[in-house]
Amino acid sequence: MSDRVYNFSAGPATLPESVLKQAQKDIWDLFDTGIGILEHSHRDAAFDRVTHETEADCRAVGNIPDDYAVTWVQGGATSQCYFVPANFLPEDRTADYFQTGKWANDSIKEVPLYGKVHICGSSKDTGYDHIPVGDEVKYSDNPVYVQFTSNNTIMGTEFQTEPTPPEGAFLVADMSSNMFSKPIDVTKYGLIYAGAQKNLGPSGIVLVIARKDLIAEPVRELPMMMQYRNHANKEGRFNTPNTFGVYLMGQVFKWILERGGLEAVREMNVEKAKIVYDFLDSQDFFKPHARKDSRSMMNITFKCPTPELDALFVEQAEKKGLTTLKGHRSIGGMRASIYNAFPKAGCEALVAFMKEFAHEHAGAVNA
After folding, report:
1. What burial letters (b/e) apply to 113-134, b meaning 16+ CB within 10 Å?
2. Is 234 a catalytic residue?
3. Which of the following is catalytic: 26, 57, 103, 272?
4. How far apart are CA 34 and CA 366, in angstroms?
5. Which CATH architecture has domain 6-12+260-360?
6. Is 326 a catalytic residue?
């Protein structure tokens, strides 16, 4: 890790060091053009190459077929909360949503602007500590689509597999925080979107993968920038895109391919998460938030016995180079985000500190 600290931030988050070093070079001079990536026009030949390589590598990573568009938009994943119903949901139809935390709720709130919303599964009553499955899931009659947030950064929960929508409905996923962390069958989805700042690149750009037939014609008149087809038809250059974001996503895709693709990345992520979860399961000082059957590989959430100890833990961890571990304000505690580029050594260092901290403060709790 050189002299860098371990960055457990939930996003913007850790990027591969090799990608950062390549970006340092390309900020100064891209493809020996004498112009850096930040200065190139989005219409010139150098950025044509960046665009085409980024799309091609994304397709290679995700095994994305030709009948799906690969594009990118601005506005963060939050903008997709209304893009999706605006493009797909007629005002007299219903869309089904899984309610699994803040980001799911942000999407749910936007739907009534365009049509009807049905909560098909919710873990709200238990503090969003698990993913609804089985009898907890009840779809509406004839929904247009079913949307879920595949990984919940705040709560540390993750869908272990995608839900199966009712016949006639297509699946929409917000994959902002676990995109390309494991293999994915794109053909099971109508649309996938992912803010880049967790696993794919910098903030300010959203990857969108969509079935071409679904985005060919929005269900209502929309502003030009809100129509998926316009972005897809112009290679993500309907307007001036976040050119550095496109470039850096492309570098991350190359990094994934160099490591052997998504099967290899999944193995790496399982190994890292296991280090922390195995320790959490072996003791009773720290309390995990997520239920075992719903645990996230990307975001590990836990608490000390008291809020005061939580604050002390975060403070002391920071001094040891274990940074940004403070949990989201809505649940407190700690959150260790260990996305694709986060090193295994950081998980080992975290567990070593957790053992030390628990040993030092166990007596105060039991007194």
Report:
1. ebbbbbbbbbbeeeebbbbbee
2. no
3. 103
4. 65
5. Alpha-Beta Complex (3.90)
6. no
What are the backbone dihedrals phi and psi of residue 7, each rounded to the nearest 5 degrees, phi first? -100, 105
Taking CA atoms, 283 is separated from 194, 218, 331, in Å, by 35, 53, 21
The predicted structure's pLDDT at residue 366: 58
72 noted as active-site residue: no
40 three-state secondary structure: coil
Identified catalytic residue from 96, 174, 272, 303: 174
The listed CATH number (3.40.50.10170, 3.40.190.10, 2.40.50.140, 3.40.640.10) that belongs to domain 19-258: 3.40.640.10
Eight-class DSSP state of 182: S
Domain ranges of the chain: 6-12+260-360, 19-258
**Catalytic residue of the set 198, 272, 303, 326:** 198
pLDDT digits (tens, 9 = 90+) for 222-265: 999 999 999 999 999 999 999 999 999 999 999 999 999 999 99
